[in-house]
Amino acid sequence: MQTLFYFNNVSQLSDFESFEVKPVSGGHSDAPKQDEEPKFWSVIGTLKEEKAEGLQGRQFPVADLPTELYAGLFANLCEQITGKA
What we know:
Mean pLDDT: 92
Strand content: 25-35%
């Protein structure tokens, strides 16, 4: 599993109001079934309301990481950078 970041600049993280870690089994819309190992962990950002105008949802992947620990650390870092912690 490669680490993927879905932003070009750290300043884009300020568009989000919160970050959470979710396990992924097949794709971002597939949560692992009970007793199934996640293939990777995704940091999901919730866009601020004013940044979500015209979009169908407010939650988007910010990064995919190989372990829950790395994803948790990155989510915490995002909250520190954006002043949400």
